[in-house]
DNA sequence: TCCGACACAAAAAA
DNA sequence: ATTTTTTGTGTCGG
């Protein structure tokens, strides 16, 4: 029997807030940990609305290589909110492979179909390219004949290369996202070049000037045409237009891969490489044409061979639903037609080609459809947050991540490896990267083990009198040794509560002004400081809910989101003498953790008070929650100019004069640099250069920061809160260290007494310090549990149920 | 509630 | 390697 860290979190809500929005909690341990989460709310604390939910959808997230991988499990009824371990396990393993389904295309590329409600993939990921639904021919509108009245076969070859995923037997597109349709046409029985050397006529006898394609969309319910729009790569900055009629010559449709590769080519030499796929030059055809030939009629010299409809979207105005429940379905139509001279009859209303013809006034020519193909029904999802997944983390899907190990069997689990992020860019101090990789890779197969050996995890929420307390979070799975990528020396814990939708973090943290917290002022050429594993790192983001509580009983509209990232502490060494937490943002909510304390609540915790003197600066991580002082601390650079705290402080607080001071300092340093360079060795010069760069950076960041225009009062306020928080956190981390030491001691004693197998409990350098085999006592399911209700929010499947609440 | 507009961010392209 | 471009989607306000 071992004991494991417990994290306690207290969230103080503003008065007026009475409930919580359902959401998902994550408890994340190391790089490959599994967390099972229960959200328990005492019955007497339930506020109207919270317990309305009859269904809860537990989710399981595995954190691997800096990314979450989600596993859904079948929903459970809240009649029995206690998620039975076995059932949980079983359902997890059942659906694990459903997140992304990958099929192999004819050209060796893959089409990975995934539900954007469940997983978010980077915008430029190659996984966004995929072959969509096939087209099927519609009865032809015309036949075409050559000079000898022979019928010339014509076959469209359309393909969707982006924008539609096959999910649960439906083809799903997104209103906000681009899709791509490409098409060429083939001339069975004729060589494409030869085809161009002859003349053609419609079965009505009209001479065909040239061939062209059109893209259209129809709503299947009312059979009405739907507008499409096309953007340029500049999107909002460029023009919008209806997908044009493309004049094309017959050709083979380039493979999907070619369309991918050619999708955003600007480089001239690269464009040349693709030229032959997409263009026919009249001179390529040769001279031996018949007297009258269609080639001569083509209006442009490079003649398109492929109609590429890229960056297409359904017009924003289209209604996507018939009723609140029922989706309208759409079909895309690819039409091959021809231009003929003059204005011609419109097509009868009963024809599927109705309104697909088009008279071009400028050219005095009419586009007359000849053949067309259509997609099966398509469902277009709108902008509702319910059509997007919860804001977790982007799955990293660089090509190299999955190219190296192509999945052999396309029907099996797709290979969706996620890569550790930006590893290359920083010095990796962590000792056993190799181990991490191999082990993380295995982590999926370890799920059952981890789960069965895991700890139950409980969040208890008591939203009484404006306070909500989350306490006693036990780790479901502390981990096997594999879960601790930082090696034996440390363990990383983090907890995140993510709201299910729109979350006004920025507004909320800084009430009056918008400060950008998600993107710290950070020059891209600044090297990110390395993460020192012996350092205590602690960062929180939290905010007030700004939604005023409505009188409406049915609506629990308050939202809370907090992210508690990376409590890293050393478990084998004595705590560092100095433990500087990362900078805090000003908090209205107060969040604290207690590690390894089952008995006392947050309120009970009174850390030993220490002196108020500031700690010497240490390296800090630049994070999303970074703030100016993170960047302006020159001590962060080992050979940079040292600056005492008072100076740093004043530079931060006194915005204006700080700039001047910095400039002065920079000047001085630059002078020094200048002197030095004249008489220093190359290495010294290099060093000085880097110093110079840092100075430049400093200046730039300062300039940028000046644009945040924070008033002095605000700065004072922020600083005060910050220093308070830092002090508190420092105390806390010291306290936590001592607690952890106690725990380890206890554990060691236990191990000794219970005669552990294979655990070399004696060696302090061993990874045993972090329990590698975790048997956690089952959660005490007592009367307390009966009075509780688990509310773990799961995204709706198939858009059947509407979101019951929205953040405002 | 829906939508235009702007914003952020991550991978491709250069 | 770094910078620019592209595009999925978060967000705000009308």
Automatic annotation (TrEMBL):
Keywords: DNA-binding, Nucleus
Region Disordered, residue ranges: 398-440, 680-711, 752-808
Alphabetical list of Gene3D superfamilies matching this protein: NDT80 DNA-binding domain (2.60.40.1390)
GO biological process: meiotic cell cycle; positive regulation of transcription by RNA polymerase II
Biased composition (Polar residues): 754-769
Predominant location: nucleus
One Pfam short name: NDT80_PhoG
A molecular function GO annotation: DNA-binding transcription factor activity
Subcellular compartments: Nucleus
Domain annotation NDT80: ranges: 93-392
Highest taxon of source: Eukaryota
DNA-binding region: 93-392
UniProt feature, compositional bias: Basic and acidic residues: 680-689, 700-711
GO cellular component terms given for this protein: nuclear chromosome
Name by which UniProt lists this protein: WGS project CCBQ000000000 data, contig 00058
Organism lineage string: Eukaryota, Fungi, Dikarya, Ascomycota, Saccharomycotina
